[in-house]
Amino acid sequence: MHVLVVEDDRDIREMVCQSLAQNDFQTLGCRDVQDAKQSIAKINPDCLVIDWMLPDGSGIDLIRWLRRQEQFKQIPVLMLTARAQETDMITGLDSGADDYLTKPMSLRELNARVRALLRRPAHYEEQQDLLQSGPLSLNTRTHEVFVMDNPIELTKTEFKLLKLLIGNPKKVFSREQILDAVWGMNAFLGDRTVDVHVLRLRKTLKPYGVEGMIMTVRGSGYRLSEQTSA
Fold first, then answer.
1. Is the dihedral of CA 162, 163, 166, 171 positive or negative?
2. d(CA 80, CA 5)
3. Are 5 and 30 in contact (CB under 8 A)?
4. Cβ(40)–Cβ(66) under 8 Å?
5. What is the pLDDT of residue 61?
6. Dist CA 175 CA 218 (whole Å)
7. What is the CATH number that goes with domain 127-224?
8. How far apart are the first and last CA of the chain?
9. What pLDDT, on the 0 to 100 scale, is given for residue 13?
10. Which of 111, 121, 192, 197 gives the lowest tally of CB atoms within 10 Å of its CB?
């Protein structure tokens, strides 16, 4: 999982990146808004940690820009700042931040908050009726799935799994994230559950030649590709 840390103070930036890296996150640090925008476009991070005051703008403006970008608007954001007034927190959250943490902070709490943001299924669900990727289309209102004009019968779990993937094209989901989104955060199931259901979904899609759209990303999880080849 990639976390982009946008912080102009080098010592804090390096400390946060190092702490996150020790907790198995891949990290990249940026010192200003422009650098952050370029890095977001390049790596499409799974989460952002953003300071308020930056040399060429504000973290608030960066978050507002992010929420206007169709391909990046679902990325969870933790605002990390020394501004501790209630009005500042309200402004940050109203601007699109998902969580707000004030400096000086506990690194353990920072890591816990990042993990919590990444476990929120709401960040990975598009609120619209018709979702489509390549020849696959899914109607969230009628619970119908089609490959071109061919209807496909899916179980409830297979439907939820496909909805998660098709609603977030090219997004790589870990098995833990899929478990939380499909079965719920309180479900006590193993990673093997995800693998089995992915296998079943691929088997259902195979007669239509689109099973290869559900791709395994080694060491990370699964994602949906618009390409139909395996």
1. negative
2. 9
3. yes
4. yes
5. 92
6. 12
7. 1.10.10.10
8. 24
9. 93
10. 192
Write down the pLDDT at residue 170: 75
Q: What angle do CA 43, 49, 51 make, to 5 degrees?
A: 120
Tokens of 221: 């999880």
Tell me which DSSP letter residue 173 carries.
B
Query: Domain 2-118, what fold?
Result: Rossmann fold (3.40.50)
Type and span of the H or E element at 91: helix 86-94
Give the bridge partners for 147, in sequence order. Answer: 136, 150
Of 118, 88, 93, residue with least CA distance to 103: 88
> In 143-180, which positions are buried (b, 16+ CB within 10 angstroms) versus exposed (e)?
eebebeeeebebeeebbbbbbbbbbbbebbbbbbbbbb
Helix (H, G, I), strand (E, B) or coil at 118: helix
Contacts of 52 (CB under 8 A, 6+ apart): 58, 59, 60, 79, 81, 82, 83, 88, 92
Give pLDDT, residue 124: 46
- pTM score: 0.56
For residue 181, the 8-state DSSP code is: I
Q: How many Cβ atoms are within 10 Å of 58's Cβ, its own excluded?
A: 16
Instruction: State the pLDDT at residue 4.
Output: 94
- Domain boundaries in the chain? 2-118, 127-224
Spell out the residues 6+ positions from residue 117 whose beta carbon is closer than 8 angstroms to its own.
Answer: 47, 76, 77, 78, 98, 99, 123
Q: What is the mean pLDDT of each run of 10 residues along the chain (230 residues)?
A: 91 94 91 92 90 92 89 87 87 89 90 85 55 90 89 92 87 86 70 88 94 91 76
